[in-house]
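fwd from M.: "can u put these together and see what the complex looks like"

so here's what she sent:
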Amino acid sequence: MEIKKTAIAGTLESSDVQIMLTQGTDGIVFDLVSDVAKQFDDAIKQTINQVLSEYGIQNVIVKVVDKGALDMVIKARTVAVVQRALDTVGEPKWEVL
Amino acid sequence: MTNTVQDIHMSNVTQKKNWQAFLSKLGITKFNDQELDAIEQTIGIYDDEQLVATGSIAGNIIKYVGVCAIGETSKGARFNQLMTALENRMALLERFHQFVYTKPLYVQSFEHVGFKLLADSSAGVLLEKGSPDVQNFLNAIPKALQGVQTIGSVVVNANPFTIGHQYLIEKAANENDLVYVFVVNQDVSLFRTAERFDLVKQGVKNFKNVIVVAGGDYIISYLTFPSYFITNTQQVINYQTTIDARIFKNIIAPALAIQRRYVGSEPLSHTTNLYNQTLVRELEPEIKLIIVPRIAQDNQTEIVSARKVRQAIAENDFEAWSEIVPETTKKFINQHLAELQMRIRKGQKINGN
């Protein structure tokens, strides 16, 4: 699947995460800011990667500002931002949820 | 305790007064029309009835950010809530790219919410977030081929393109293997950005080693850099030009392997002259700044300038502008004379740059 438009989801508030997707051409490229990047950098990326692969997205720039979000929050925000970026907000992909 | 986000309307005198009083307490005291007129939206966070944080949107710039930490549940909570609200509002406007100009001491706060530093000076700093960012801007510019040794650069507003610009670019083209010509993007001039860009392209099409690039957000947008957080006027010009020069030196020039920058000598414009002085101070020695004496007309007393062309258009003095613009620009002016004169009558300033 191709990203149709730049989209953003989530907030910058404590225990949340803000994710922005933009069209990319070079695989999945991360730009991640987190106070807990040292410990959880890989875990955050893995969660996001999982969702992206379920939607079949292969090329995208992912900008993440993490404020200590738990795994399920990251997943939920990723699903939201993907649906927005694919312009399919009205058609949730139930099997991913 | 409930924090709610609300609009602050500048047209509402009471709201505006409260807003200014709040920012003044936080040390932001400059509210001139030029800064305020650019604001499209202002929001406030209220703790019950009390304003505790505010920020404004002007194009892709976030400004007049102020946060009061008294009574905050956790450090930075209000700031983060404010930035979220501002970014979401911009996203609704399809703007996913933000700039912030602020004092050096706030760099960390903005970096914590994903901003990246573009350039700093002791008086103020510039950060950006989102996309397309400076990397996207640089990626879109054609790069020099293998074997190209010397790369020069020229920045022009070209309002409009004159034989003076042509002379400067020709000199650079003769002295370098490749020359980048950046055209300032700000659409505030008599000639529209698209028109200026086209006339530059046409005016240099005989020079095979010249690449004309739209300057985007990163080349001399200093003319519109917000500076409300700096009180001293002299410091403002210094800060704006320094930031511009450092973006060029630290980000743009290395990415394109630019070694030289050519500018015209500036006997007439005070601001541009200060700008040239800043360029000397900031760019050297890594990037060589070559100041080329401006060419003059036959009588050697009057230098060629785009301002003179605009003046001549206002006065309908065909002879005066024909002498100092190339054929391509002349043709454009002749075809659009009525419209250009209309713009001047409607209040377009022609004295600036």
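replying to her w this: Chain A touches chain B through 16 residues (CB under 8 Å).
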